Amino acid sequence: MPIHVIRLGSPRTPGEGVRLGTVRHPPRGVPKAELASRDFYDVWFPTLAPSAEAVKAGRAAGDSPRAWQAFSRRYLKEMKAPEARHALDLLAALSRQGSLAVGCYCADEARCHRSLLRRLLEEHGAEVAG
Question: Which long-range contacts (CB under 8 A, 24 or more apart) does 112-115 make?
């Protein structure tokens, strides 16, 4: 059963499993007790979120391919840290046993760390949906 890479806050799909919020901060104005029922996430998992500095650079990237490449390099470097590598290995192993989802708030996956996270999960042997 694969890992679904999703936009947090979007409606859940059948068979999606547990949602992990791979974001630096919980959504503003949403009580903790409502995070799951409002389709954000079941578990906050900031280990795979970009650092605050990388997030700032990513937001500033806008439509600039050069700035996006700089963000991508920075995030991928961050994901080489032991804690991140262990988390990626764990999620890859779990993807072979059951369904789960990882996500971020960004509207466009192509300009979001979750596109890079998708690639990293695949590189770690995860079964990734679509």
Answer: 113/22, 113/49, 113/50, 113/54, 113/58, 113/75, 114/5, 114/6, 114/22, 115/5
Burial state string for 99-110 with b = 16 or more CB within 10 A and e = fewer than 16:
bbbbbbebeebe
Mean pLDDT of each 10-residue bin along the chain, 130 residues long: 94 94 95 97 97 83 83 95 98 94 94 95 94
| Amino acid at the residue 55 | V
Please state the domain extents for the chain.
Answer: 3-123
* pTM beyond cutoff 0.85: yes
3-state SS record for the chain: CCEEEEECCCCCCCCCCEEEECCCCCCCCCCHHHCCCCCCCCEECHHHCCCHHHHHHHHHHCCCHHHHHHHHHHHHHHCCCHHHHHHHHHHHHHHCCCCEEEEECCCCHHHCHHHHHHHHHHHCCCCECC
